[in-house]
From TrEMBL:
Residues 868-889 are annotated as: Disordered. Residues 1007-1304 form the CHAT domain. PANTHER family: FUNGAL LIPASE-LIKE DOMAIN-CONTAINING PROTEIN, KINESIN LIGHT CHAIN. InterPro entries: CHAT_dom (IPR024983), TPR-like_helical_dom_sf (IPR011990). This is CHAT domain-containing protein. It comes from the Eukaryota. Gene3D superfamilies: Tetratricopeptide repeat domain. It comes from Dentipellis fragilis. Pfam families: CHAT.
Length: 1305
């Protein structure tokens, strides 16, 4: 017998016993031999533990039943009973069996034999274990592991298999652990966890052994969470580790490792969920572990938890304690210890954090040294190398941001790229590595302007966000970083998608960051920066208002002495400046300067952003100089710009901006001093700014404009034509060059170009091209991607530009172009809405699929645009910032999609002019029903252009007596005479006003001026100043007026010379022509057509609304009488017309809108109100609500079942308009035309409750009886009705008969 055989049976070799027993173990001598071996080892309990004792039992089971010795039977009994009991105490019982009596022994032996008489169990065990042993001895570990699950399933259900099962699982655990330690494979980690869990579930262990197994299981569950981010893994790890600690309660001194492991797991869960209780408990358990065993590892772990709690609660004591704990981990640890780099890297992180709080530069330098040493001590291939490289890069980046040394940022990017390159996508640290790389690239882009850096930064941050689980604590960090890089790219490319995505990311980051988190001020600041950038692009006042709130919140969270305090002060100062620039409140510019001074004073000269803060403050001072003409402000601004330039290298991206700002300030100084030295330096400075600006940069057009302006100043001063030529070239390049630029900048450049062309007597063709450039950019400036109200606000940028361009075109003899420009630049918002509702028949014939998509997008965009006021109101109420943000972004994406679809349609050869501004040939048919007169008012000259025949050329009628100042005076006098006029308590007036004395002379004088300076020259040119006493008014010529500027608010239809003396006679417009108004020529061309599914009813279907007692308004008893009169012509007389009346409370908003769908005529007898600041909220006042223009616009879609035709607005202020928007016809009447009504009867101001029924009666009488219900003759019917009222009340009662006007066809 070989000497190794007993050892093989007792030790690892037990796996082969089933193969050997049948052939070898046949005699009692074998049992004796085994026993003698046991005796030599004194039969120790440890030696017999586990598989060794079980091996003896199974070996003895093969011995024949003829047993010679009770002692040997005792061995047999012991070994067999061990299989059943697995208890080493059986050894002592077995040794006593030799003293048993024969009967007693036989009884015990019978029990043993009963246990052994199960050949099927032995066969099963043999079949399972033998193949496993073979794979193990062959070192074929992968095959062994594949076989383990089946073995576990079989042996786990066999009581006799438990001892062998434990040994199998032990071997599997060792294999998985060794392989994971070498490769870090997630597969091996999962295998280890699975086997450990099976040991816990299937193997009977004492408390100490079970506690050890649970500790290992908990640690690996934490490892898995750190790899996958699955929250269930860390939850289970914490539960398992708590149980491990509880099981070891009898010996707590040995729990230090388990306590530390539990603390680490709680810390990891805190990082994932942000639950502050977890990090508090983690710190407590770390301290308990240190009390039991103060080793470096535990100090390092405590420091990490303290650091993160500081980031959350901002308690400076935590970061101070963390630094102390890091030193206690580092100092006793030699460089050869593999944990040393880990301690150094974490120490560096805490030092960086401490620097952020107190601003001690030595902290930052020490952090970089610590991180560098950590990287040096980390061997290649170590899983922690990527994290340590990333930490080094972050500290280098922070020092670059502080001091601006290019070497630091290059080294930072190199370190981050290495970290990213060695980290797999499935590793949880990959997201952090990518985010850190993105930050470094973004910082280098901001300093040096390399677009590739910015694009790479955005890509890195997007990938980081994608790899970060939604509930992870770093989600907010990665979102904030992504938003910042998108913000940077937007500043270069002006793509709204970037700034929208940036704001959305910042909002999510802020929402996910608690108020006490140290990063919250920075994330609020980032959100504010993005909102401010978008405000600069689209001027949405909601953005600038929110910016100030966000920046103030951020600033309030920053303690005195914080390194970022200058940054937040600068942000606040910029917001005050932008708000002043938009609203013009002097308090804001004063606040901007005061706050900017604080930002500059709190930033040391070596502060990297100091030049930017100086430049921003200088810009605010220059702005105040323009308002208050304080020379000290301008001189201070110039000094600060010079200082900013001194602190900035030529390779830094902001240098051109500082230079051009200095140049602009010097040009301003020249205008005061007339010193050629100032203007010469200004031009030289501008030239250098342009030289340093990368080609195509978004700032280049602005620099060119500033250069052109300075050159134009010098040309005006010295008369050198070369200066003028250079200025013209600069303006032209800024207006039409290839550089990216905002539309407002392009328009500014084109206007300067055109005006300088005029000054220098350049060819008309060049000047016309410059003005044409303005019109190319107006649609983008007044963009469909924002709400209607916001578009109205943007129109102020256009100002009188359209009138200026039209006046030049007229002077150049380009009448057709003048008409086209007037149409293109007038009523821009209404024209956009009409365009969205234009049938796409031509496109459908060629590309039905494209037409369907464009139609769908147009419909959604139409509703999104008209909902702008609703979003504005929601922003003042309970609407969340995120929901408003998402709505706004959805609107902008629709507009972008609409533009792309238009471009695609225009690529079709037959549709090159598809939905482009109309040419003169398209506009001529507007005069089919009679001449259309467009009046242009500009300081150079005032003119009328007449379209009188679709085939005739445009007639030009100079108006030499009319000037803008005269027109303004006429409007002012007229409106003053109407202010407070109310002839009865039953005027249809929306708000009570004080009563005043009518100014007859002012009204009469205004009407006389309109007649002499505007109307009479036009009628004379048309040959209409002939009165035929036999001619009826139905035979009068019909003129449609389209006035601009101040004339848009004046009653041209009532112009004339009135006299109180019959002998003097009168000369009035209504004695010669019938007048109508139109907001645009397009409104007269092709009224809104319904979809093919919408039936077109023949005959009138009238919906009448009366509101005699509107809550909170004056009673209007005449409205009911008025509708009774109307009813008489629709019900009592046979005119083949349908009639529906909603009176008082019956007329709710819902009921009116529903009935409008089936009625093509509507008569509204009620109060009306013109909303001056939000025109889309102008409304008809119903019983319990208001029917706004927005409601009507949104209802006029395909849900209507008939085409709108005639609207009679018998309410006040339905055609009043808004003084600040003279070219937009922003009133209810124009809105009804845009909604689809072809003809509208409206009022220019309040109307008397007793007068309206008279006008209504006579209007419908003439329309139905004289014109057969033809709405195209509604202007003639109104002419008759007003004439009747005028004769009834007297022509001197102007305010009673003048309000009624006709608009449309």
């Amino acid at each position: 017998m070989k000497a190794w055989f007993p050892q093989m049976l007792l030790g690892k070799g037990y796996f082969c016993y089933q193969a050997l027993v049948p052939a070898v173990i046949q005699t009692l001598e074998l049992v004796k031999y085994v026993y003698s071996f046991l005796a030599e080892n004194h039969c120790s309990a440890t030696f017999f533990a586990g598989s060794s004792a079980r091996t003896i039992a199974i070996a003895a089971s093969a011995v024949p039943q003829a047993v010679e010795s009770r002692f040997h039977c005792a061995i047999l009994l012991y070994t067999a009973s061990t299989v059943m009991a697995e208890d080493d105490a059986q050894l002592r019982q077995a040794l006593l069996l030799s003293s048993l009596s024969s009967d007693e022994f036989d009884e015990q032996l019978a029990q043993v034999q009963q246990v052994q008489s199960q050949p099927s169990t032995q066969d099963t065990i043999q079949s399972v274990v033998a193949p496993l042993l073979y794979q193990l001895e062959s070192q074929n570990y992968e095959q062994f592991l594949r076989m383990v699950p089946q073995a576990v399933e079989i042996l786990g259900n066999m009581r006799a298999g438990h001892p062998i099962l434990s040994k199998i699982l032990d071997e599997a655990t060792n294999i998985y652990y060794n392989r994971y330690s070498q490769t870090g494979s997630l597969h091996d980690m999962d295998g280890f966890i699975s086997v450990q869990q099976q040991i816990v579930d299937l193997v009977a262990l004492d408390d100490t052994a079970l506690s050890s197994v649970l500790n290992d299981l908990g640690v690996f569950l934490r490892f898995k969470f750190e790899r996958t981010g699955n929250i269930e893994d860390i939850e289970k790890a914490i539960s398992v580790l708590r149980r491990a600690i509880d099981l070891n309660a009898f010996d707590p001194a040995k729990n230090h490792g388990r306590l530390d492991n539990l603390a680490i797991s709680l810390f990891r869960r805190f990082e994932a969920t942000g639950d502050i209780t977890d990090v508090n408990n983690a710190i407590s358990f770390h301290r308990q572990a240190i009390e039991l065993k103060p080793i470096p590892q535990y100090f390092g772990n405590l420091a990490n938890s303290l650091h993160r709690r500081f980031e959350r609660l901002n308690n400076i004591a935590d970061i101070n304690d963390a630094i102390v704990a890091h030193r206690q981990a580092i100092d006793p640890t030699p460089d050869s210890n593999p944990q040393k780099p880990h301690y150094l890297s974490n120490y560096g992180n805490s030092l960086c954090c401490h620097f952020e709080q107190v601003g001690d530069v030595e902290d930052l330098n020490d952090a970089i040294r610590s991180h560098s040493q950590a990287v040096e001590l980390t061997p290649a291939g170590d899983n922690a190398l990527a994290n340590r490289l990333s930490n080094l890069g972050a500290s280098l980046l922070r020092r670059f941001q502080r001091f601006g040394n290019p070497t630091d940022i290059d080294d930072a990017i190199y370190a981050h790229r290495r970290a990213v390159g060695i980290t797999s996508d499935d590793h949880p640290a990959k997201a952090d590595c990518l985010s850190n790389l993105g930050n470094a690239l973004d910082s280098r882009f901001e300093r040096f302007g390399r677009l590739r850096d910015c694009n790479d930064s955005v890509a890195a941050h997007r990938k980081a966000v994608e790899l970060t689980p939604l509930r992870h604590a770093d989600t907010a960090l990665h979102l904030s970083n992504l938003g910042k890089s998108l913000d940077s790219r937007f500043g270069y490319t002006c793509q709204l998608t970037d700034i929208d995505d940036a704001i959305l990311a910042h909002r999510k980051a802020v929402d996910a960051t608690p108020d006490t988190h140290t990063e919250r001020p920075k994330r609020l600041g980032n959100l504010g920066s993005s909102l401010s950038a978008r405000f600069e692009a689209i001027s949405d006042t909601r953005d600038i208002n929110e910016v100030l709130v966000v920046y103030q919140r951020a600033f309030n969270l920053i303690p005195n002495g914080h390194p970022d305090r200058p940054l937040h002060l600068n942000n606040l100062a910029n917001t005050f400046y932008r708000r002043f620039d938009h609203f013009g409140k002097l308090d804001d510019i004063d606040d901007a300067i005061a706050t900017g001074n604080l930002a500059v004073d709190s930033a040391a000269d070596d502060y990297a952003s100091k030049p930017l803060y100086l430049s921003n403050l200088a810009t605010a001072l220059r702005c105040r100089f323009k308002c208050k003409s304080n020379d000290d402000d301008l001189k201070s601004a110039i000094s600060m710009y010079r200082r900013a330039i001194e602190l900035t290298g030529d390779d830094q991206v902001n240098k051109p901006m500082y230079l051009t700002n200095l140049g602009a300030s010097l040009a301003e100084l020249f205008r005061c001093s007339r010193s050629t030295t100032d203007i010469d330096e200004a031009i030289t400075t501008h030239v250098k700014a342009i030289e340093l600006t990368p080609e195509g940069h978004v700032g280049e057009p602005g620099h060119l404009i500033n250069l052109g302006t300075s050159l134009a100043y010098r040309f005006d001063h010295a008369g050198d034509r070369s200066d003028a030529d250079r200025a013209l070239a600069a303006y032209e390049s800024a207006a039409v060059g290839k550089s990216i630029a905002r539309d407002a900048v392009r328009i500014n450049a084109a206007l300067r170009w055109a005006r300088l062309c005029i000054t220098t007597h350049s060819p008309d063709s060049t000047t016309l091209r410059a003005f044409a450039t303005v019109f190319q950019h107006i649609p983008r400036l007044i963009w469909l991607g924002v709400g209607v109200q916001h578009r109205y606000e943007k129109l102020s940028v256009v100002g009188e530009t359209v009138n200026e361009a039209v006046a030049f075109a007229i002077g150049a003899g380009e009448m057709d172009m003048a008409i086209q420009w007037l149409e293109e630049g007038r009523c821009v918002v209404w024209s956009q809405i009409l365009q969205l509702r234009t049938p796409l028949d031509d496109l459908k014939k060629i590309d039905p699929e494209l037409a369907d998509e464009l139609e769908a997008v147009s419909h959604l965009l139409d509703r999104a645009g008209s909902s702008g006021d609703q979003l504005l109101e929601k922003s003042r109420g309970t609407g969340s910032a995120m929901s408003l943000e998402e709505e706004g972004q959805k609107h902008r994406r629709l507009a972008e999609r609409y533009e792309k679809l238009l471009e695609k349609a225009r690529e079709i050869p037959e549709l090159q002019h598809f939905l482009r501004p109309k040419l003169i040939a398209d506009l001529r048919p507007a005069a089919t029903a009679g001449p259309v007169v467009l009046v242009n008012v500009h300081e150079t000259h005032c003119d009328a252009l007449v379209l009188s025949d679709p085939r005739a050329p445009v007639q030009h009628v100079p108006l030499p007596k009319l000037t803008p100042s005269v027109a303004m005076d006429m409007r002012s006098h007229f409106l003053t005479s109407l202010q407070g006029r109310s002839d009865s308590d039953h005027d249809r007036y929306s708000v009570p006003v004080s009563l005043g004395v009518p100014s007859f002379n002012s009204i009469e004088g205004t009407l006389r001026s309109i007649w002499l300076q505007v109307v009479k020259p036009i009628l004379d040119t048309l040959g209409y100043l002939t009165i035929d006493s036999s001619r009826e008014s139905i035979d009068f010529p019909h003129i449609t007026w389209c006035a601009t500027g101040p004339l848009a608010f004046l009653p041209i239809h009532a112009a004339g010379i009135y006299s109180s003396s019959p002998s003097k006679g009168r000369e009035c417009i209504f004695d010669y022509v019938v007048s109508s108004y139109t907001p645009t020529l397009t409104a007269l061309l092709s009224p809104y057509q319904p979809s093919p599914s919408r039936p077109h009813y023949t005959g009138a279907r009238l919906l009448a609304i009366s509101q005699p007692n509107t809550p909170r308004q004056r009673p209007l008893p005449g409205t009911r009488a008025e509708v009774q009169v109307v009813k008489a012509y629709f019900v009592d007389k046979d005119f083949n017309a349908a009639f529906k009346w909603l009176d008082g409370k019956e007329a709710t908003k819902a009921s009116v809108l529903e009935e409008m769908k089936t009625h093509n005529w509507i008569h509204l007898a009620c109060h009306g109100i013109q909303h001056k600041t939000h025109p889309m909220q102008s409304a008809f006042l119903l019983d319990e609500s208001s029917l706004t223009l927005l409601d009507i616009m949104q209802s006029s879609d395909d849900s209507s079942t008939c085409a709108y035709d005639l609207a009679v607005l018998s309410a006040c202020q339905t055609a009043t308009g808004v003084n600040s928007l003279p070219e937009e016809a922003a009133h209810l009447a124009a809105g009804m035309i845009t909604a689809g009504y072809r003809s509208v009867i409206a009022t220019m101001w309040f109307v008397g409750d007793s007068d309206a029924p008279i006008v209504a009666r006579e209007f419908y009488k003439a329309l139905m009886e004289s014109h057969g219900g033809d709405s195209r003759k509604s202007a003639y019917a109104l002419h008759h009705a007003v004439k009747y009222l005028r004769e009834e009340i007297g022509q001197e009662n102007f305010v009673r008969w003048m309000p009624f006007i006709h608009m449309g066809v």
